[in-house]
Design goal:
Helix content is about 35%, strand content about 15%. The chain is an alpha/beta fold. The model has no long low-confidence stretch (mean pLDDT about 95). Helix 9 packs across helix 18. The longest helix is centred in the last third of the chain and has 29 residues. The strands form 4 sheets. Strands 3-2-1-4-15 form a 5-stranded parallel β-sheet, sandwiched between helices. Strands 6-13-7-8-9 form a 5-stranded parallel β-sheet. It contains 18 helices and 15 strands. One of its GO terms (molecular function) is oxidoreductase activity. This is NAD(P)-dependent oxidoreductase. Keywords: 4Fe-4S, Iron, Iron-sulfur, Metal-binding, NADP, Oxidoreductase.
Length: about 475
């Protein structure tokens, strides 16, 4: 250990931009064994591991780095698996630069952080290949069932822990495949789909029952599910696209980011996607041969621009109202996008979308950064007389997501929500205002990170278990 002075920071090699832009495979291979051990050996084994402190899951990072450096890879996997239900997924899509790696002690000393995410990915991918990932073993049957609405990170995590605790678990999801945004929102070049599907299959093999293509409020009301199960967890995430109000916003060719990404991911699965059209181009969600303008600066916007490149767009531009330093998306994603040919139009905001039968251009204006807003970020202001026009055949709005109107959607007007539309919970119990109905993940905290969804899914199981145990005791006394 402590080799951070001798050995420098290293990442797995990325494929050449021109090659990786031709497919949806992940852009980097995983570490060779000797490189993973070398990078893990750079850990300083500091007394106060800020990497663990700033990980929402509080993963035992120094411990499994030490085990990796010593060649004890199976033990390293078992250690990483203690705190996370999806370590190979977090290793791929967590913003390590803002979490564990960004708070690495040797990063502060100027030696470059240990590349923790790449090592985490290597450990768990190896575990799958070697057969170290054990089947989900249900606990002793408790005679109670739980219903989980939403098969994203929070819902899947809670389902696993509750099944291990011995409950009958039913997961309800609107899509035809489980995984939520892991499956349909994140492109394959960041997270290949078989990675998610093998996790889901492990849960199915463990006896968790998945009800796919199931819409609460349509196929059953929330109250009907409450009558069927001893407890309910709502973990739907937030899917409602934020609106942009300006002339031409409803024109054909002005599309929502999630609709575009879902169509592309379905195509990657080999599904028939009529709105994608033929591979040669022309479909509503097919960027082939089109001038694409993506509006937004988060990771969803980065997913859209990089997906457009792979679909064969004629040009791809990202319009963002702040500068690079104030962009909410991952700096690594911006760099990857630029390498693949995406042009960023900084300090610019749309004013209108031109075209009658179909969008033809985006009318925009230049911005400048003024005084900080309530969040501390400098507010963008319009620069007078600075209008310009960008040619566009496809405009993708990637402005973030809000909560859907769940009381109406679930036909449950008594369900309490905050002024932001997220579910109101008692944070000591993670229960909503309805007895036995819990909530976790983005539907409570708002649009956030996958790792926080996993953390919330892990935390809520403790509260659900306590509630169900007490409920069972009351029922036994009453009987």
């Amino acid at each position: 250990m402590l080799k951070f002075v001798e050995d420098g920071q290293a990442y797995p090699e990325k494929r050449e931009p021109t090659l990786r832009a031709e497919d949806f495979h992940e852009i980097a291979d995983r570490f060779p064994p000797e490189k993973a051990a070398e990078q893990a050996a750079r850990c300083s084994q500091c007394g106060v591991p800020y990497c663990s402190t700033h990980c929402p899951l509080h993963n035992h990072i120094p411990d499994w780095l030490k085990l990796t450096a010593e060649g004890r890879l199976r033990e390293a996997y078992e250690m990483s698996n203690l705190t996370s239900t999806m370590p190979e997924i977090c290793g791929r899509i967590c913003p390590q630069d803002r979490l564990c790696e960004g708070n690495c002690v040797i990063e502060f000393s100027g030696h470059g952080a240990v590349t923790i995410g790449a090592v985490e990915k290597y450990i768990t991918d190896t575990a799958w290949e070697e057969g170290w990932v054990e089947p989900l073993e249900p606990g002793a049957p408790r005679g109670q069932s739980v219903g989980i609405v939403g098969a994203g990170p929070a819902g899947l995590t809670a389902a696993e822990y509750m099944r291990v605790a011995g409950y009958d678990v039913h997961v309800y999801d609107r899509h035809d495949r489980a995984g939520g945004l892991l499956t349909y929102g994140i492109p394959g070049f960041k997270l290949e789909k078989h990675i998610i599907m093998r996790r889901v299959q492990r849960l199915k093999d463990g006896g968790i029952v998945f009800h796919e293509n199931f819409e609460v409020g349509k196929d059953a009301t929330l109250d009907e599910l409450r009558n069927k199960h001893a407890a309910i967890l709502i973990a739907t995430g937030v899917y409602k696209a934020r609106e942009i109000k300006m002339p031409g916003a409803g024109a054909p060719g002005v599309e929502e980011a999630l609709d575009f990404l879902i169509a592309s991911n379905r195509k990657s699965f080999g599904d028939d996607v009529p709105e994608f059209g033929p591979d040669s181009g022309g479909g509503r969600f097919n960027a082939k041969g089109k001038n694409v303008v993506v509006i937004g600066g988060g990771d969803t916007a980065m997913d859209c621009v990089r997906t457009s490149v792979r679909q064969g767009a004629k040009s791809v531009k990202c319009l963002y109202r702040r500068d690079r330093a104030n962009m909410p998306g991952s700096p690594n994603e911006v760099k990857n996008a630029e390498e693949e040919g995406v042009e960023f139009v900084w300090l610019s905001a749309p004013k209108a979308f031109e075209g009658t039968d179909h969008v033809t251009a985006v009318k925009a204006t230049q911005m400048r950064l003024g005084s900080p807003d309530a969040s501390g970020r400098r507010s963008p202001e319009v620069q007078p007389d600075s209008d310009f026009t960008l040619e566009a055949d496809l405009v993708i709005k990637a402005l973030g997501f809000d909560a859907e109107e769940l009381p109406a959607l679930f036909d449950c007007p008594d369900l309490s929500v905050t002024r932001w539309g997220t579910l109101r919970v008692d944070h000591k119990s993670m229960m909503t205002n309805l007895d036995g109905v819990f909530a976790a993940g983005d539907i409570v905290r708002g649009a956030s990170l996958v790792v926080w969804g996993i953390r919330d899914g892990r935390d809520v199981t403790e509260h659900m278990h306590r509630y169900l145990r007490e409920k069972n005791q009351v029922e036994k006394v009453a009987a």
